[in-house]
Design brief:
One of its GO terms (molecular function) is tRNA N(6)-L-threonylcarbamoyladenine synthase activity. It catalyses: L-threonylcarbamoyladenylate + adenosine(37) in tRNA = N(6)-L-threonylcarbamoyladenosine(37) in tRNA + AMP + H(+). The chain is α/β, with parallel strands linked by helices and 390 residues long. It folds into two domains: 174 residues, 2-Layer Sandwich (Nucleotidyltransferase, domain 5); 186 residues, Nucleotidyltransferase, domain 5 (2-Layer Sandwich), CATH 3.30.420.40. 49% of the residues lie in helices and 15% in strands. A five-stranded mixed sheet has the order 3-2-1-4-5, with helices on both faces. Helix 13 links the parallel strand 9 and strand 10. Helix 4 packs parallel to helix 6, helix 8 runs antiparallel to helix 12 and helix 9 crosses helix 12. Bound molecules: 5'-O-[(R)-(carboxyoxy)(hydroxy)phosphoryl]adenosine. 5'-O-[(R)-(carboxyoxy)(hydroxy)phosphoryl]adenosine binds next to helix 8 and helix 9. The site of 5'-O-[(R)-(carboxyoxy)(hydroxy)phosphoryl]adenosine has 19 residues, from helix 8 and helix 9.
């Protein structure tokens, strides 16, 4: 299929101006009708493609995982990730189309792709494939992965109506730890971020410190493995400081800091000469880490709720997304915070849609397409991209 498509891309790029005009005319015609979007996600380690229609139906998806090739290094190796995207993306696209029983040329109306943030070489693979596919179809649109995390809840939310804006979004992943207010499509206020490591990084580094083997397959990796260990441990057995509580100024900030937490666990192990070959010790340390990370999340979310209240923003929900939001213990704590303290629902996409996936990219395609936010074929990747400057 790709051999057939590449020459088409070259022809189109020469007639780019005419095409862009054509794109907008067709967008206006199609936006009130039902349409299908194919989403491509290659920002980091997994190669993912999803197909969604504008009536919030997930039509098909496929993912090629890379856990096994990265585990020996204890983290993502960018070059290996890129080569794997290059090798597997065409077959992942075909598999998603087969699962959906759809034909690329006949049934897909829009192609969506992660533009950033992410690993530059990996983003490039997804972008060139998606731009090429879009060039032989009629449309393309490209957007931030962060926005996809913020919007997936509108696809998966159980009500028949779309989840209304504004809502508070906690994006907790390997690349990000963000608190956002989602006011509308393409309109977000970032209230806080991490000043050092992301929460996902802290989970991954602590899992490595404790020598916890990665969970394999969908929903796997080091963070998910640490969660399994924490389930068997006692979070109160050991005590480590909750980040940013000591310094009065830091305490009032909506930002996070996770690098100290991982170091606290390391120092604790060294100070008390804990035996890391003892499984019970590992279970308790995993539970201690997870508990402290969760309390830190809640501390800053409370400040965000207060900020919204002071601004008169009537939130409809708390949305949690990103890989770490698939952690069940964190979810239930967030649920108590939203329901009991703030009288709003917690909305989380199902765990497999919290980690990077093609469905959320396709859904963001639906939302942006409806809002008329269509990009040009010449658009490039943005490896470092803030959601505020979309
Ligand atoms: O959103 P995501 O798939 O992509 C990146 O931004 O990289 O998030 C991946 C991160 C990794 O750090 C992974 O270890 C962590 O999410 N993660 C978890 C869990 N599942 C994935 N962390 C804690 N508990 C989990 N169940």
């Amino acid at each position: 299929m790709f051999h057939r498509l590449f020459p088409a891309c070259l022809i189109h790029s020469k007639t780019h101006r005419t095409l862009c005009k054509y794109l907008f005319i067709n967008a206006a015609n199609i936006s009130n009708q039902s349409f299908n979007v194919l989403g491509v996600e290659t920002s980091c380690d997994d190669t993912a493609v999803g197909i969604v229609n504008s009536d919030r139906k997930i039509l098909g998806e496929a993912i090629h995982y890379q856990h096994e090739i990265h585990e020996p290094s204890g983290g993502i190796v960018p070059n290996l990730a890129m080569v794997n995207h290059q090798t597997y993306l065409p077959s992942v696209i075909c598999e998603a189309l087969n699962n959906a029983e759809l034909d690329m040329a006949k049934d897909i109306d829009v192609v969506a792709v992660t533009r950033g943030p992410g690993l530059p070489a990996c983003l490039g693979i997804g972008l060139s494939a998606a731009k090429t596919l879009a060039a032989v179809l009629r449309y393309t649109l490209l957007f931030s992965l962060l926005e996809a995390h913020a919007l997936t809840a509108r696809l998966t939310h159980s009500s028949s109506d779309l989840l209304p804006f504004p809502y508070l979004t906690l994006l907790i992943s390997g690349g990000h730890t963000l608190i956002l207010v989602a006011h509308g499509i393409g309109h977000y206020t970032q209230l806080g971020t991490t000043i050092d490591d992301s929460i996902g990084d802290a989970f991954d580094k602590t899992a490595r410190l404790l020598k916890i083997p990665w969970l394999k397959g969908r929903g796997g990796g080091p963070g998910a493995a640490l969660e399994q260990y924490a389930l068997k441990g006692d979070p109160k057995k050991y005590t480590v400081p909750i980040p940013m509580r000591k310094d009065a100024r830091r305490k009032r900030e909506m930002n996070y800091s996770f690098s100290g937490l991982k170091t606290s666990i390391k120092d604790f192990v060294e100070k008390y000469k804990l035996n890391l070959d003892d499984e019970i010790v590992i279970y308790d340390l995993a539970a201690t880490f997870q508990h402290a990370a969760t309390v830190h999340l809640i501390d800053k979310l409370e400040l965000a709720f207060e900020w919204c209240r002071n601004k008169g923003i009537a939130l409809t929900a708390l949305v949690a997304s990103g890989g770490v939001a698939s952690n069940k213990s964190i979810r239930s704590t967030l649920e108590r915070l939203a329901n009991e303290q703030h009288n709003i629902p917690l909305i989380c996409p199902p765990p497999h849609l919290c980690t990077d996936n093609g469905i959320m990219i396709a859904w963001t395609g639906v939302e942006r397409f409806r809002a008329g936010l269509i990009d040009k074929y010449t658009i490039d990747h943005i490896p470092k991209w803030s959601i505020a400057n979309k």
